[in-house]
Design a protein that fits this description.
The chain is an all-alpha fold.
């Protein structure tokens, strides 16, 4: 059961859907720029006979990974977030019942 859709109105769902779609589009743009820039950095590094390009590749890659985790797993309306909210509702309901 999707707890987000069961407790929100139609305009709220539209707003949430647009926000989540915008966040995902932002991640796709981030990933695209990451690939383009790092292809250039790897090419430049290799042309000079060095391996320094792995440092920005790994650092920026970690940032991209964290960005993706927030967008797909932790953002409101995401599956993981919905499961946590449902679990908390069940726990609070049990606590309220005594």
């Amino acid at each position: 059961m999707n707890t987000t859709t069961s407790n929100t109105s139609r305009p709220d769902l539209e707003k949430l859907a647009r926000r989540r779609a915008g966040a995902k589009m932002g991640w796709y743009i981030h990933a695209f720029v990451y690939v383009l820039v790092n292809i250039g950095l790897v090419g430049l590094s290799a042309a000079k006979g060095h391996t320094w390009a792995m440092y920005p590749l790994m650092g920026w890659g970690l940032g991209l990974l964290i960005h993706g985790a927030v967008i797909w797993f932790l953002a409101p309306g995401g599956g993981f977030y919905d499961r946590l909210v449902a679990r908390e509702r069940r726990a609070l309901g049990a606590w309220e019942r005594g």
